[in-house]
Specification:
By secondary structure, this protein is mostly helical. The chain has two domains: about 40 residues; about 140 residues, Protein Binding, DinI Protein, Chain A. It is built from five helices and two strands, in the order αβαααβα. A two-stranded parallel sheet has the order 1-2. α2 packs across α5 and α3 runs antiparallel to α4. About 10% of the residues are buried.
Length: about 180
């Protein structure tokens, strides 16, 4: 073999060894980092927030308040809508400038009704969001307490899109409902 050929072969062999050692080293570092970053999870439990909202005294009370507010706001809207309908039937009796003015007023009243509807919807949505926020914070506090009591590593919120299966004994919802009713009357 010629001296030049041997040198090329040594360089190729060196590059191959170097890349293999870099790849192996990177794989070792990556696997040890992954193992260190993800601790083992022991006991896991779930809590069904929808059931808490539906079954706790606070949830039932909040739902009744929201329904009452919604009914009250709907009555206001219905009165305004009926008035607009009555005004619209009166248009048939008018002519000329009186008709044009009445149509303009009716249109303004109609836009006002739409604005009122949007405002009332927004108020209801905000009221519901505040209620949910308070109840969620309370449940979070209870979940932390229960995690300590039951030596849990992880507590998840159960719903149809996130938790597909739960073994018997893993769902803490009944206990959360009991504690919620006791602590947050």
């Amino acid at each position: 073999m010629s001296h030049v050929r041997t040198a090329k072969l040594r360089r190729l062999l060196g590059v191959a060894l170097l890349s293999t050692s870099l790849f192996t080293g990177a794989a070792l570092v990556e696997s040890s980092t992954a193992e260190a970053a993800v601790p083992d999870v022991g006991k896991v439990a779930v809590v069904d927030m929808q059931r808490i909202l539906n079954e706790t005294s606070a949830g039932k009370s909040a739902r009744q308040k929201l329904e009452s507010a919604s009914t009250s706001k709907q009555k206001k809207l219905d009165k305004r809508r009926q008035k607009l309908e009555q005004d619209q039937t009166k248009l048939a009796q008018l002519q000329g400038d009186a008709l044009a003015q009445a149509q303009e007023k009716l249109q303004r009243d109609y836009y006002e009704l739409q604005s009122m509807y949007m405002t009332l919807q927004q108020e209801l949505a905000e009221q519901e969001a505040r209620t949910l926020e308070v109840m969620y914070a309370n449940c979070q506090s209870l979940a932390k307490e229960m995690a300590k009591d039951f030596k849990l590593d992880l507590v998840l919120i159960r719903d149809q899109t996130t938790v597909l299966y739960v073994a018997d004994g893993v769902d803490l919802t009944n206990e959360v409902i009991k504690r919620y009713d006791k602590k947050y009357k």
